[in-house]
Automatic annotation (TrEMBL), chains A, B:
This is DNA-binding LacI/PurR family transcriptional regulator. Pfam families: LacI (PF00356), Peripla_BP_3 (PF13377). The lineage of its organism: Bacteria, Bacillati, Actinomycetota, Actinomycetes, Kitasatosporales. GO terms for molecular function: DNA-binding transcription factor activity; transcription cis-regulatory region binding. It comes from Streptomyces calvus. Transmembrane segments: none annotated. InterPro entries: HTH_LacI (IPR000843), LacI/GalR-like_sensor (IPR046335), Lambda_DNA-bd_dom_sf (IPR010982), Peripla_BP_I (IPR028082).
DNA sequence: CTCAAGTTTTACAACGTTATACACGCCGTC
DNA sequence: GACGGCGTGTATAACGTTGTAAAACTTGAG
């Protein structure tokens, strides 16, 4: 059923290679010949067989994008950007979800799919430096996200420390003094946690104490984790006047708990999230958030992979993507005009 | 660098085919020979080249999953289920997002990627029956979702009419009489819109008027669309006592508008969504929603594709997946405040 | 009108795998 | 003791594509 170069060649009365030359826009083909072959291609509806092409060229035309969770709209937007950019370069994206599990991330980074993909964009959560150190494969790897690895791989991310400091700065400017952090990594060495570091640095810079009891570690990074972390802090008797969450879903989970406990946002407790997901714009209290430029990150990631693919000599680089702080109701100085202050 | 069958064969002192036989668990191989070859395989760290295998076998081992939007957690969960099920059958999933755009959906269904994938699972939004009628390809296609096509393709979905009726029934049981529907398809023939049909049928069955002015058509199906639809209904002077939304994000967008306008949920207006996304469980007012069994849908979809792949003779079938109505605060008889987060 | 130099097209060999068909032992049977 | 039959291993030919090198065709100068 499928039509091959051979079929097109027979139909056009030329050699296989000539058809191949036309398909690949090879330069030494007369316009007349190109025209004639193209007509046959269209007539038969020829489509190149990628498996054969790959076998011959050693490339698959597929790059993998491994993300912790697709359900988080942040990653979904990122994925869209990656897919679009890749398409512009005639690459297909294989989307993978690791669930933020070390085992899965390891599997992906070790290239369990090494013979299928040309390059890999990975957003690790649990992976450690030593896990990445002995990658047997030569498949180009580009890292995304908040984790900081001291390894010779391209890394695309916003400046997480600076972004976190901006968020905390904003809270301090509102007059808040007891700023909690929700979503620290449980049992991990501190230097890798850039957002916590930013929280600590900014508080210290402002002459405020960075009370470690206001840092809530969690297992995951979803709504439920934010909710339980918030409950944990309040149950321990602490009553911060602001919360900075690792990401938006956690911030929203925390806000739900505050609502259940009769605490008002932002009057009693101001809240700042991270990632600026669409959901944060439609709650009863809209969410102030750090907004990374997802489109830029996705684009840069693809371009890095492809650059390394076509010329493996380049230096490994660390690219900073833009971000900004979007202020909404959850950190408003005064109650919003239309907002009903239901207890 | 990569080690091929040839290398292993040379190392073990046997023919290439014998190594292939061992790799593929071909039956006529003596244990001794198997052992010996296996040792060479392990020693050299041989990994099969999938491209070559696929070229030879005519299969890629990849199935595509094309979804309207990855950002909607409903689809993310669905994707996870598909990926997992596929992995169990040694298949890889190529995730694609159509944005719910007819052009993209057409492209995918026409198989612009036909030579890369063995099968396709598509969740169409805009696609029409005639678009699917003349698919040139023989790549197995399985449809998902709410759209109803009278075509010989497998279709996995919950009974959308029945589910919508259950949702409306629930609202009627609460004593609501003016139930609005948010998220109708703009300018589309009605029979395809199963959830609207369920809304209409159930109201009629209860002896209530199905007021078409309470049906709000939208362009998209996101938060913002739900919000503007809600605004539109209220601006037109209508004041329904209940809203049934096409999906959860729209319901949440609508609730935001109700909140802005000082209308209480559920006291003034009860709200029911569709899909049961996690976000609905963490708003200031948690959302009642129709909860399709996403895991089942994903599993059934993969199994259908693979069945058709291995034996193309089977009848095309329409499979109904389970669902249930999850009741939360947005349709509670009593006031919503002070309720703890439910799981 | 010939021949060199350039341009366009072609034949053929790979890429790594599996299917087909055949060769080789080994057994039991006549 | 030759003869099918079976169980095991092996050459060889594909699968559809592209790179290489050589063949065929132009072109233009002498």
């Amino acid at each position: 059923m499928p039509v091959s170069l051979k079929d097109v060649a027979a139909h056009a009365g030329v050699s296989i290679k000539t058809v191949s030359n036309v398909v690949n826009n090879y330069q030494h083909v007369t316009p007349a010949m190109r025209e004639r072959v193209q007509r046959s291609i269209d007539a038969l509806g020829y489509q190149p067989n990628l498996a054969a092409r790959h076998l011959r060229k050693g490339r698959t035309g597929i790059i993998a994008l491994a993300l912790p969770e697709l359900g988080n709209p942040y990653f979904a937007e990122l994925a869209a950007s990656v897919i679009d950019t890749a398409a512009q370069h005639d690459y297909i994206v294989l989307l993978d979800h690791t669930g933020g599990l070390r085992e899965q991330e390891l599997l992906v980074s070790q290239g369990f799919r090494a013979r299928v993909i040309d390059g890999l964009i990975l957003s690790p959560i649990e992976l450690e430096t030593e896990d990445l150190r002995d990658r047997a494969h030569d498949v180009p790897l580009v890292l995304l996200g908040e984790r900081d690895y001291d390894l010779p791989y391209d890394h695309i991310a916003i400046d997480n420390v600076a972004a976190a400091r901006a968020a905390v700065r904003h809270l301090i400017d509102l007059g808040r003094r007891d700023v909690a952090f929700i979503g620290a990594r449980r049992g991990r060495s501190e230097p890798a946690q850039l957002r916590v570091r930013g929280w600590r640095e900014e508080l210290t810079a402002a002459g405020l104490p960075a009370d470690e009891r206001l840092v809530a570690a969690t297992d995951g990074w979803g709504h439920a984790d934010g909710a339980s972390a918030m409950n944990h802090i309040l149950d321990s008797g602490r009553r911060p006047d602001a919360v900075f969450a690792y990401n938006d879903p956690m911030a929203i989970g925390a806000m739900r708990v505050l609502h259940e406990r009769g605490l008002r946002v932002p009057e009693d407790i101001a809240v700042v999230g991270f990632d600026d997901v669409i959901e944060g714009r439609f709650g009863a209290v809209t969410l102030t958030s750090v907004s990374p430029d997802k489109a830029a990150i996705g684009r840069l990631a693809v371009e890095s992979v492809l650059a390394r693919l076509h010329d493996r000599a380049t230096e490994h680089r660390r690219v900073s993507a833009p971000y900004r702080l979007v202020e909404r109701e959850s950190t408003l100085g005064r109650p919003a005009a239309q907002r009903r202050t239901d207890s």
